[in-house]
Amino acid sequence: GYTILPLWFDPEVLEFLRRDANLMSSINLIPLRGMSIDYLLSIQGVGNIVLGIPFGFGLPFLVKSNYKSILLRGLFFTLTIELVQLVISLLYRFPYRTIDINDVLLNLSGVLIGYALFCFFAWIYRKSVSKDEPTKGVWSHIHNVLTSQSVKTID
Question: What are the pLDDT digits (tens) for 123-142?
Fold first, then answer.
């Protein structure tokens, strides 16, 4: 809801928002410009990190993953969000959302935090159960992912 929505369709509202609009003023392609401790601790800074955590934690349950694949897929995920925001801004002809490389970096940080949490929980799970323990249903998939040798963690 904070990255894409809401979308506006009222022509009067759109025309009002287009007045004095400078689309280029809402695009930052310079890494770390505008970054500060205050920004990182703000709802937007923390929100950008938190947005990526479920992606990094959940992706290994869907596809075989390692650090490199999570990094590449996470980068694609966060660049897609920024690209969609840019396309919407171009269609609206005013800065709908800020397109910011810092958002990409923070989202990607969240993805990596999520993957680190996954690896940590998988390590704890492997220490507490046998790999050959019988399981049923969806728990079988979860068990297999968490005990998989393809998940590289530090023992």
Answer: 999 999 887 778 788 888 88
CA dist., res. 136 & res. 113, Å (int): 30
pTM to 2 decimal places = 0.82
Give the count of beta carbons closer than 10 Å to the beta carbon of residue 9.
7
Helices 43-62, 137-147: axis angle to 10 degrees equals 100
Residue 4 carries which side chain, given as an amino acid letter? I
Distance between alpha carbon 142 and the CA centroid of its chain, in Å? 22
Alpha-helical (H) ranges within the chain are 11-18, 37-41, 43-62, 67-92, 101-128, 137-147
CA 26 – CA 19 distance, rounded (Å): 15
